[in-house]
Design goal:
Blueprint lengths: L2 E5 L18 H4 L2 H4 L2 H6 L1 H15 L6 H13 L3 E5 L5 H4 L5 E3 L2 E8 L4 E4 L18 E5 L9 H10 L2 E5 L11 H7 L3 E6 L11 E4 L2 H14 L6
Parallel strand pairs: 1-2, 1-7, 2-3, 7-8, 8-9
Antiparallel strand pairs: 4-5, 4-6
The structure holds adenosine-5-diphosphoribose.
Length: 234
């Protein structure tokens, strides 16, 4: 029983991190085309660095919630048969204990040096142009995939989608590609698909089983259900 779980901002909402497109979402207060594109960074690096410095600082003030913890428990049971593919740049999955996590949109707590092309764990600010720990250049940017850039680890993700028996989507609006196409990929292979989301998403009608509610309730219940089912027996 191989399971691929896709997560979005909704899984971290109850930890206190805003989503992007909900009423109080990040894109309500910021224009994504101004703060989340390489061209914007070239035009006004301070504005972009300040936006991500604030988000990185906010990440230090929150904790994983019951949904993150439930997926970590599921990984304990399934081991390599579970892969969490997250669109989130926060590290709440890892802080909850998950190890098999792919950050397809990058990580907030990492800096990418565009001079020597190395990446460094980073919890501080980048606005003050700290030197790269590797080459010393002042060319560090957030290691986040911006609009128009190619998501990370797509080969690994596609291989896991090709090989899975169950695809589950948690807390995502299904409007950003390529993540929004993963359910189609799974359906084309005849794989069972489950959605756990507060509201209907753009892809809800594509799921065999689409459940409504907060992630901190839906995810632990779904994990218990799966582990209790014979599918969860290794
Ligand atoms: N529990 C479950 N789902 C929730 C909760 C919650 N507590 N709160 C919100 N949601 C759902 C919303 O109903 C919505 O469908 O989470 C989804 C959040 O959608 P978005 O804000 O669009 O976030 P996401 O889908 O992760 O965005 C995808 O867009 O801006 C880019 O790169 C960014 O990774 C991001 C991508």
């Amino acid at each position: 029983m191989r399971v691929v779980v896709l997560t979005g901002a909704g899984i971290s909402a109850e930890s206190g991190l805003p989503t992007f497109r909900d009423a109080d979402g990040l894109w309500e207060g910021h224009d994504p085309m101004v703060v989340a594109r390489p061209e914007s960074f070239a035009a006004d690096p301070d504005l972009v660095q300040r936006f991500y410095d604030e988000r990185r600082a906010a990440l230090g003030r929150v904790e994983p919630n019951a949904a993150h913890l439930a997926l970590a428990r599921l990984e304990e049971a399934l081991g390599d048969d579970l892969l969490v593919v997250t669109q989130n740049v926060d590290d709440l999955h890892e802080r909850a204990g998950s190890m098999r996590v792919v950050h397809m949109h990058g990580r907030l707590r990492a800096a990418w040096c565009t001079a020597c092309d190395t990446r460094h764990d980073w919890t501080g600010t980048l606005l003050d142009l700290p030197p790269c720990p590797g080459c010393g250049a002042e060319r560090l940017r957030p290691d986040v995939v911006w609009f128009g850039e190619v998501p990370y680890d797509m080969d690994r993700i596609e291989a896991a989608l090709w090989d899975c028996d169950l695809f589950v989507s948690i807390g995502t609006s299904g409007v950003v590609y390529p993540a929004a196409a993963f359910v189609q990929y799974a359906l084309a292979r005849g794989v069972r698909t489950v959605e756990l989301n507060l509201d209907a998403s753009d892809g809800s009608s594509d799921f065999h089983d689409s459940r409504r509610g907060p992630a901190t309730e839906l995810v632990p219940a779904w994990v218990e259900e799966l582990l209790a089912s014979e599918l969860g027996q290794k």
